[in-house]
From TrEMBL, chain A:
NCBIfam families: sdhC_b558_fam. Heme binds at residues 27, 70, 113, 158. InterPro entries: Cytochrome_b-558, SQR/QFR_C/D, Succ_DH_cyt_b558_Firmicute, SuccDH_FuR_B_TM-su. The chain crosses the membrane at residues 12-34, 54-76, 97-115, 145-173, 185-204. It comes from Cohnella thailandensis. This is Succinate dehydrogenase cytochrome b558 subunit. The lineage of its organism: Bacteria, Bacillati, Bacillota, Bacilli, Bacillales. It comes from the Bacteria. The keyword Iron applies. The keyword Iron applies. GO terms for molecular function: metal ion binding. GO terms for cellular component: membrane. Its main location: membrane.
From TrEMBL, chain B:
The keyword 4Fe-4S applies. It holds the Pfam family Fer2_3. Belongs to the succinate dehydrogenase/fumarate reductase iron-sulfur protein family. Keywords: 2Fe-2S, 3Fe-4S, 4Fe-4S, Iron, Iron-sulfur, Metal-binding, Oxidoreductase, Tricarboxylic acid cycle. One of its GO terms (molecular function) is 4 iron, 4 sulfur cluster binding. This is succinate dehydrogenase. Its cofactor is [3Fe-4S] cluster; [2Fe-2S] cluster; [4Fe-4S] cluster. It comes from Cohnella thailandensis. The lineage of its organism: Bacteria, Bacillati, Bacillota, Bacilli, Bacillales. The keyword 4Fe-4S applies. Its EC number is 1.3.5.1. PANTHER family: SUCCINATE DEHYDROGENASE [UBIQUINONE] IRON-SULFUR SUBUNIT, MITOCHONDRIAL, SUCCINATE DEHYDROGENASE IRON-SULFUR PROTEIN. Residues 152-180 form the 4Fe-4S ferredoxin-type domain. GO terms for biological process: respiratory electron transport chain; tricarboxylic acid cycle.
């Protein structure tokens, strides 16, 4: 395979599902623990993740590098596509256009989101234990709440529709019937995962995350400082 | 009867045609009012302009140039954009079209003049993917293996492709920023790989589609299958070749 785009395109498609799709589901479930288990539930979920062995390498190889490749190559793919929904106003063509729009939007959002959360932990401005309160401080600002609300919908659409396209691009769903059934399943996944994220956004807005973590925050600052 | 004839003769059909003089010159539009005749199509309207090249405002112009051959939607030569959709002018009946009828060339291809486009890239694509059955030998190779009737039936549908270019015009990934080969030749690979003799060279066609600008350029907008005038299941062909190229990729890696 000399200098061709077949392999990178295949890798782009694969990385979107494994590991990024799996990480995305994990992220939705971890956040949802804030809705289901409140402050304690969320803290336990975050602690569990950060207690995994070789966590740095897991993050590096299962999240950061795949996102970087998928995002940068995705920008190139979006650049080489025309959007022609005006002339061809068909459902699948809209999905094609939205896949590119949501992809570019999600990539920019993810860079911001990583800066606002993971990088702040790395810089020592917040900790994994305080991340719930940190999120509370972010999503109680109306501007950020709207940004996060739109971003989780865009990201979830991109994931669910990308899963549908993955099944086509790897030759798993071939006939129109298979593609129709898989598109219904993927849109079901879109709704379920989007609801998980939205519920957790509302959970982070709750007073529980303000007061309880504020107490922990003041405690830890008292201990540290 | 005579009254109906005069009434019909007075009726006109309004056309707005996108024209250009040379491949590099800027496009412009011209309007025409063409006398209505029963059962006329876009080609017969263009023939009327050829006979009497007068614009709607009464001034003379050059006849509009177009290409057509079979006039029965099997050759693909008269593909153009009619009221926003790429299709064949011969099967575009005036009675079924909303007026004014807007006619423009398929600009995914190089425009030669007016409505004439150069579809050479489609024929080059067929050469690139070896869309033929090699049967020549230095001696008589004898009869080839038989094809199952059930397979022949779906393969026949794929053989209806007339390289008209409508699927490339509809595809959002066929443009000057991408080298994507387009849906039609991918479906032809499926056709010739389905043939019992053609199958012997299946890997050559798959490998052609695994090079730059090959099958990976498909973004699954599925406009092609919605636009194909012959109803060819293009997206089924693309997904089937996705499966075959994926399998071929793994086989090559594993040295199988």
């Amino acid at each position: 395979m000399s200098g061709n785009s077949f392999l990178p395109r295949k890798i782009h498609s694969l990385l979107g599902v494994i590991p990024l799709g799996l990480f995305f589901i994990e992220h939705a479930l971890t956040n949802y623990s804030a809705f289901e288990g409140g402050q304690e539930g969320f803290k336990d979920s975050v602690e569990f993740l950060h207690s995994l062995p070789l966590i740095f390498f897991l993050e590096l190889f299962l999240i950061w590098l795949p996102i970087l490749f998928h995002g940068v190559y995705g920008l190139y793919l979006a650049f080489t596509s025309n959007l022609n929904v005006g002339r061809f106003n068909y459902g699948r063509n809209w999905a094609f256009a939205l896949q590119r729009i949501s992809g570019v939007f999600t990539f920019i959002f993810v860079i911001w989101h990583v800066w606002q959360t993971r990088v702040q932990v790395a810089l020592g401005n917040t900790t994994n234990e305080e991340i719930g309160q940190h999120m509370h401080d972010i999503v109680t600002q109306p501007g950020f709440f709207i940004l996060y609300f739109v971003a989780v919908i865009a990201a979830t659409f991109h994931f669910a529709n990308g899963l549908w396209a993955f099944l086509v691009s790897w030759g798993i769903t071939i006939g129109p019937r298979a593609q129709k059934v898989s598109s219904r399943i993927c849109m079901g996944i879109f709704v379920i995962v989007a609801v998980l994220f939205i519920l957790s956004l509302f959970a982070f807005r709750g007073d529980e995350f303000a007061s309880a973590s504020a107490a922990i925050g003041s405690l830890s600052s008292a201990v540290l400082g | 009867m005579a009254e109906t004839a005069t009434a019909t003769a007075k009726r006109t059909v309004k056309f707005i045609i996108t024209r250009r003089e040379t491949p590099d010159s800027a496009p412009y539009t011209e309007e025409f009012d063409i006398p209505y005749r029963p059962n006329m199509n876009v080609i017969s309207a263009l023939m009327e302009i050829q006979r009497n090249p007068v614009k709607a405002d009464g001034t003379k112009t050059t006849p509009v140039v177009w290409e057509s051959n079979c006039l029965e939607e099997v050759c693909g030569a008269c593909s153009m954009v009619i009221n926003g959709k790429p299709r064949q002018a011969c099967s575009a009946l005036i009675d079924n079209l909303e007026q004014p009828i807007r006619v423009a060339p398929m600009t995914t291809f190089p425009v030669v003049r007016d409505l004439v486009i150069n579809r050479e890239r489609m024929f080059n694509a067929l050469k690139r993917v070896k869309a033929w059955i090699p049967i020549d030998g230095t001696y008589d190779l004898g009869p080839g293996p038989r094809m199952a009737e059930s397979k022949r039936q779906w393969a026949y549908e794929l053989s209806k492709c007339m390289t008209c270019g409508v699927c490339l015009e509809a595809c959002p990934n066929v443009n000057d920023r991408s080298s994507f080969i387009g849906p039609a030749p991918i479906s032809q690979v499926r056709l010739f790989n389905a043939h019992p003799t053609g199958e012997m060279n299946a890997h050559e066609r798959l490998e052609a589609l695994m090079t730059d600008g090959g099958i990976e350029g498909c973004g699954n907008s599925q406009n092609c299958v919605r636009s194909c005038p012959k109803g060819i299941p293009l997206t089924t062909s693309i997904a089937a070749i996705n499966k075959d190229t994926t399998k071929h990729m793994f086989k090559r890696w594993l040295g199988m």
